[in-house]
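So, can you check this one?
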Amino acid sequence: MATISQGFPLLNGRQMPAIGLGSWQSKPGDVEKAVEEAIDAGYRHIDTAWAYQNEAEIGRAVQKKIKDGVVKREDLFIVSKLFGLQAAENSVAAVIKACQDSVQNLGVGALDLYLNHGPFGIPKDPTGKSIWPGMAEGKPQFCNYDHALIWKGLEACVDKGLTKAIGLSNYNSKQIQAVWDTARIKPANLQVECHAYLQQKKLFEFCKEKGMTFTAYAPLGSPGKPMRYSGKPLTPILENPHLLKIAKNHSKTAAQVSLRWFTQRGIIVIPKSINPGRIRQNLDIFDFQLTSEEMAEIATLDCNGRFFVFDGYEKEPWYPYNEEY
């Protein structure tokens, strides 16, 4: 069984696998089985976050596969993320504690990559009932976020051996630059929403020029979630006739064509699935090549449509989507 050796180099010289398993919104019980299935299938990149509340379950699956001799820890690339609530007190110590919590939850030693999950702080819910205070009432709350200080905390996590690399998620180019300008350890990766309808061409090139790897979450869209888009109604990404036509040319699925399109551009993908068949199918994308004409055809589908817009945060000073890219 072939594992995925194709990857892209980080600033620290390590390789980040081109495809990983996403785990957002995977239900308790499902995600552990999905990670075991993924590792058996050949995945070596697992993406999670403290906010997903599934780190411990993912850790159990990884530990089991290591114990069973299926994989070695050094062959895996584990990503987790700092949540705004964890760093709300704006201190280096809070960031270190958050990273320690993720490392302990996962139980697999140092992380390979630790990302700041977003560019705004979230205050703690005084009731302790939610990690998104006010969200259920349609009035999400945020708090001041000292980005330079938070980044120093992430750098301290590298210094302490808690993670091998650090990066950002849901940041725009100006926010990345602000962090970059004061960083002692530069951001190694950016993770953002990216798919055929939101291709992030300018943001990708911005990161590429800095040597940052680029990860697409929701690379196949987000079924069941409405897309924010000002144009005419669109078909779901995986039902798009252009992708279906190209898929037929290669005896592949629209999902496989979409994922291959990303990796040929130099973008890492983390499709989420708990279905064993689709987990394996999403990995089976390196035995064919899209032509330059097919790549160009998919490029025409871009319409700046977003599934994830952080409703209620639009007036926050660090809201990331008020900029072009």
